[in-house]
Amino acid sequence: MLRKIFNPARLSRFQRTMVTVSSSDALVSTEVDDKTGYATVTLNRAPVNSLSLELMTEIVKTVDELERSNIRGMVLTSFSNKVFCAGLDIMEMVNPDLDRLRAVWTRLQDTWASLYGTSFPTVALINGHAPAGGCLLALCCEYRVMCNNFNIGLNETQLGLAVPPWLQGTMRQTIGTREAEIHCIKGTMFNSQDALKIGLVDELAAENGEAMQRALHYLNTFKQMSPYARSATKLLMRNKDIEDMKRGRKEDVERFVENVMNSDFQNGLTVYLQSLKNRKNK
Ligand SMILES: CCCCCCCCCCCC/C=C/CC(=O)SCCNC(=O)CCNC(=O)[C@H](O)C(C)(C)COP(=O)(O)OP(=O)(O)OC[C@H]1O[C@@H](n2cnc3c(N)ncnc32)[C@H](O)[C@@H]1OP(=O)(O)O
Fold first, then answer.
1. Exposed, middle or buried: residue 106 (CB in 10 Å: 0-12, 13-18, 19+)?
2. InterPro entries, alphabetically (predicted)?
């Protein structure tokens, strides 16, 4: 599982040298620069990259294939310069089919596990808002560069959802136990500056180009380092969290289903959706 010597010949499925490989309707597009071995993975589900079952399936598949392709690093970003990812697709939770709802939560667990557990270095280039599941994607990466004037945070409790233990753990690891407890419970959304102050993101950038330079700078810090030592250290730090999540995953799915099927939650969701539409029409 650990990284071997970079071999561009193993990148066949992915486009190399910065030309998009995927068709225009692909939910995730991947470009690999064969000089550096860095992949740029772009979420491409208009309008707001909300995490449907299909988008999460594509993310997991992409990360698995990159793991096999022997890349040297990955930048995760959005097609939109306004929204990085709007979190779980709310429509997946409105009067859902139970089997699909279980599959949605299972796939969110998989998404977290595969992104959190990559052997190669990962940077989230947060070029837009990142509430809830959007913040989750960013937290899974090793390093976060955020453009100015957006919001990020785990606002689940504001929506009537509990933050699952594995996601709480990633937040704790990033901003510390005390702050994670306060802000998971409150469902705080941070603007870019406050996110930097609290350590939720590592750097700010004025715009996309600068953010990409900073992301690549982070990846370049590993150029001279043994990939084996790097990834072994990362995985030794993270594997226990993934194993813990996997041990409790069935109960976690059932808690989510119970949470979503609660009539108060369903009523709240209808009001919330309407509020999003009203905000838009103002
Ligand atoms: C002990 C432990 C117990 C554990 C128990 C388990 C319980 C479960 C826990 C679950 C926790 C973790 C899970 C995460 C849940 C989520 O991720 S829920 C989703 C949260 N997301 C949001 O609240 C974001 C809502 N959206 C916005 O705030 C804004 O849309 C935006 C800031 C992202 C973007 O704003 P703007 O650019 O102005 O676009 P809009 O006009 O608002 O939106 C365009 C369009 O998209 C629709 N939309 C927005 N977000 C979503 C979404 N998340 N899902 C689906 N659709 C979305 C929006 O309604 C607009 O649609 P129309 O054009 O009006 O049709």
1. middle
2. ClpP/crotonase-like_dom_sf, Enoyl-CoA_hydra/iso
> In whole angstroms, what is the distance from residue 88 CA to residue 189 CA?
16
CA gap 150, 193 in Å, rounded: 9
Choose among 189, 134, 129: nearest CA to 157.
189
Distance, CA of 231 to CA of 114 (rounded, Å) = 14
Report if pTM > 0.95: no
Pocket of ligand 1 (CB under 6 A): 47-48, 50, 82-83, 86-91, 129, 131-133, 155-156, 159, 161-165, 255-256, 259, 276-277, 280
Length of the chain: 282
Show the tokens assigned to 240.
Answer: 């226990």
Residues catalogued as catalytic: 88, 133, 155-156
| Distance of CA 6 from the midpoint of ligand 1 (Å) | 38
CA of 273 to the centre of ligand 1 (A): 9
Supply the residue whose CA is at minimum distance from atom 9 of ligand 1: 162
Given this model, what pLDDT does residue 15 score? Answer: 55
Q: Are 254 and 101 in contact (CB under 8 A)?
A: no
Distances in Å between the Cα of 109 and the Cα atoms of 26, 145, 146, 176, 238 are 22, 24, 24, 22, 15
201-245 pLDDT tens trace: 999 999 999 999 999 999 999 999 998 999 999 999 999 999 999
User: pLDDT by residue (tens digit) across 52-85?
Assistant: 999 999 999 999 999 999 899 999 999 999 999 9
Which atom of ligand 1 approaches the CA of 258 most closely?
7
